Amino acid sequence: MKTNILLLLVGGALVLLGSYSMVTQKLRTKTSDLFRNDAPVLIRTAYHDHENTIAPPDFEKAAETAVPSVVHIKTVTTFGKMASNKQQDPLEDLPGGGQFFKRFFGDNPPRFSHPDQKASGSGVIVSSDGYIVTNNHVIDGATSITVTLSDHKNYKARVIGSDVNTDLALIKIDAKGLPEMAVGNSDDVHLGEWVLAIGYPLNLDVTVTQGIVSAKSRNIGINQSGTAPVESFIQTDAAVNPGSSGGALINTAGELIGISAAIASPTGSYAGYAYAIPSNLMKKVIGDILKYGSVQRGYLGVAMAPEDLDDAKKKELGINNDITGVWVMETDPSGAAAQAGIKKGDAIIKMDGMPVTTSSELAEQVVRHKPGDRLAVTYIRKKEEKTVYVILKSKMGKFPNSDNSIPQEH
């Protein structure tokens, strides 16, 4: 009996081993398929063309073309002398401190003044006769601006105009025959595209770094100075550090596609991501400054639903996740959108034929136009798609029912 049981167990073991062998053989066959030399390529690129091997993108030519057009900007800000007696006596707030200087200087204590503040940034030459684009925060408040070209020649610069809402500024030096940079179309920029960042970080000489476009139309909430700030950044992982502000983001053709403006960092230095103002937005702002002396900005007059709403809030507000667009939470009764028939609860999906999926994309499209411009707005209302034409207004609308958590069109 014991012998029979043992034989059964051994027999069962042999059956199990046989089954295991068949399963593992199938698994090996499937696994080996993953490593076949003739496995099909899902996405064929130039790198997979073994018959006609193509080298990776040539950064050298793009850098060689663009570097002479990027400049180093150094600023000095001079502070006036302090005036009040309390500011003149650093011990005023201590017991008996107010009498400290009087013991030695009588009623005329010495005056103290702040040292001059020095800073640096970068800029891009956009015309051969000396016009240079940079960030507003690079030159804001400066009493002296010095521009150093890539050949180390120095020039004094003056501010032509600036726009705090887009953080852009235009300065000029008295020079001729400068190497202006070709400006590309930032709408043609794609995720994964190779880019180069050029600037003067950390007071170093001109520096070139490479990366890819990792996102578009990013709003990171960094501009707290403007009354109606616009953030629709190109995000890249090319290394950018303090001093690179105002520098160039270029494509592999050497064309300017963005002006470096910010970094995302817990330390203040490069930590993975940098942000550039799209060249198409730059062209509009700088063009207005040159032609009118200030930015001519049109307004649509809508308040938009925040993009980080939870599902419960979306349901409450009637937002349909199946529709990709910008949801209108409120309209200015006297604004362009309301006068064209756009209402609360509509989802704007296109501006002049360009798809918009975020509030920053919509804001960028609107801010590229001036008051009086006529734009086609495509929206969805109750699953029906409609297109209307709006005439942009010259001032921002008022939304009495909106709170600060609802972004307004800028």
Report on this structure.
The chain is of the alpha+beta class. Among the domains are: 80-113, no CATH class; 186-292, Beta Barrel (Thrombin, subunit H), CATH 2.40.10; 302-391, Pdz3 Domain (Roll). The protein contains 9 helices and 18 strands. The strands form 3 sheets. Strands 1-2-3-6-5-4 form a 6-stranded antiparallel barrel. It has a 6-stranded antiparallel beta barrel with strand order 7-8-9-12-11-10. Strands 13, 14, 15, 16, 17 and 18 form a 6-stranded antiparallel sheet that branches.
Quick overview:
The protein is an alpha+beta fold and 410 residues long.
- The fourth-level CATH homologous superfamily of one domain is Trypsin-like serine proteases
Classified by CATH, the class of one domain is Mainly Beta
In the CATH scheme, what's the topology name of one domain? Thrombin, subunit H
Range of helix content: 10-25%
The largest sheet has its strands arranged as 1-2-3-6-5-4
The average pLDDT value, as a whole number, equals 82
Number of helices: 9
Alpha-carbon distance between the two ends = 90 Å
Beta-strand residue fraction: 25-35%
